[in-house]
Amino acid sequence: MKEKLPRLPIATRLRNDFLAGLIICAPVAITLWLTWSVVRWADSWVKPYLPARYDPDNYLNFAVPGSGLLIALVAITLIGFLGKNLIGQSIVQFSESLVRRVPLVRSIYQSVKQIFETVLKDKTNSFKKVGLIEYPSPGLWALVFISTDAKGEIATKFKAMGQDMVCVFLPPTPVPTAGFLIFTPREKIVPLDMSPEDAAKLLISGGLVTPEELAGRMKKQERTRKPLPAPIEM
How deeply is 145 buried, as exposed, middle or buried, from its count of CB atoms within 10 A (0-12, 13-18, 19+)? Predict the structure, then answer.
């Protein structure tokens, strides 16, 4: 006969049920809260500058959440479409020429534009690869996002020393939005197969959430791997 497992105390069972419910509800609640915050933030920026006749709230007895975000998406898409035409390019170039005449604004605009062009271009590999480097001391490894090769004066200085340097971004845990810009030799980087999304999950969770797809792929490879033949006895 099978031995009956001892019944857990009521307090322990309630605690386990509460933790199970928290694991189910917390991700949903946080996702909804973040989505609602983004929608309200977009509405607060767009609606004050929207003419009254184009604001759907003036024709309804209730506010329409997300209308400002939708209008912003349509406007940005329309501006991008017009910016590809000859007339649109002429307007953009004229506007940029005016911005470049203002000393402080010129530096900020050029820096921000270069960042967006580098990150949003389809052909770039910036922040699409993940690796490991020894940081902050030998024997300790940190997760980094590989940005690009060293360029300009920095690349020239390092090449004169015979070093091929790569620019990487070292984010902290658990908020990977800020971090350190590090130049490291290419041969010092250990490339990883995980995606930037999986790396972000690993950082935000403090190492608790491991890349599931990569782990599943490795287990599958281990299952399909053929065993080595037994040595032939002489």
Answer: buried
